[in-house]
Amino acid sequence: MLAALVLSVLSTTQICFAQFKNRYSNLPPVTGFGGQQQQPQQQQLYVRTTPTRMIGGGGQRKAAVPQGPVGVYPQFRASVGVVRWVSDQMPLRVWVSNGVAIDAILDPALGAPYTNVESVPKWPTFLASVLQNPDQLKTLPTTQGYIPQHRQAAIEGINYWKRFEKEGLFSFEYTDDPTEADIHVFFVNHFVNRLGLGLFANDIRGYTSKDVFPYKLILQGKQAAFKPVVVILRCTEKDGVSMPPVKMRAAAGHEFGHVLGIDGHSVNPHDLMSIYYGNGVLSASDAATIKYLYKLAPDSIP
In terms of C-beta density within 10 A (0-12 exposed, 13-18 middle, 19 or more buried), how is residue 67 classed? Predict the structure, then answer.
């Protein structure tokens, strides 16, 4: 439900424009479950935890935002402007985990998972470090409450957005290799804060975290240290029973909307991109908004 953006500093080295895919090099590794771990480092210029609207109707914009065509909700814009993928990055590659418990990797400084919700902006750097030794994902336990139907439901929710491939907005495909993916989807039993305490308020079923880079600097030949986009979905209800697939499908579809660039929440409770997940499927306004977004020149790209 929440999306985190980090606008990262670009180095002055040249970039090969055919190479938009993620490269997870020169990052301190996070070792396997139960082993010694290092705190990943991240160079940041700007950090923003979630979109224009916070849960319960919090954040507000200070400046007026162009409304766009009828049906387009202005909350799609991030604080850094228009954020979306570009054609050179296509097809996006999506890896959906089979329930490995990414939250089993603990930050030794906190005694809580690296994936606690107060560290959402750091998730891409953390996962990039994990992917330095991808075999450790195989050593992690399966998330309690996860059922195989959750993975299928998540894929079905993500595929809500497949219809726009025919219009040339973007394209994505699935991969079984996490090291070649641009977008990584994990499942957790429930979300925790930095103290490791469980969070169930507001029925938040998912978080999305991504780094973004100023597109004009990339066009000038600057190097972008691309990192994976991280989506984490909750797989249990408040009473501990497994999340019904219909709810998982809606949550995954909602989070993938954040992945694609709808960074805020619609104020219309009937839209999938509202904090209420609408009717669990894309609305006409969701469709109008993604179409409008991908007609705009990006200010930043993931």
Answer: exposed
Q: What is the domain-level CATH number for residue 266?
A: 3.40.390.10
Q: Is residue 64 part of a domain?
A: no
Buried residues in 168-183 as b, exposed as e (16+ CB within 10 A): ebbebeeeeebeebbb
User: Per-10-residue mean pLDDT for the chain, 302 residues long?
Assistant: 58 35 44 39 30 28 51 93 95 97 91 91 94 90 96 98 97 96 96 71 83 92 88 92 96 98 95 94 97 97 94
What residues have CB less than 8 Å from 74, skipping those under 6 apart? 65, 66, 67, 68
Quote the number of domains for the chain: 1
251, 231, 222, 217: which is closest to 181 by C-alpha? 231
CA dihedral over 179, 166, 293, 49, signed as positive or negative: negative
CA atoms of 281 and 175, how far apart (whole Å):
24
Q: Does 59 reside within a domain?
A: no
Tell me, yes or no, whether 131 lies in a domain.
yes
Identify whether 60 is part of a domain: no
CB 22 within 8 A of CB 76: no
Q: What is the pTM (predicted TM-score) of this model?
A: 0.83
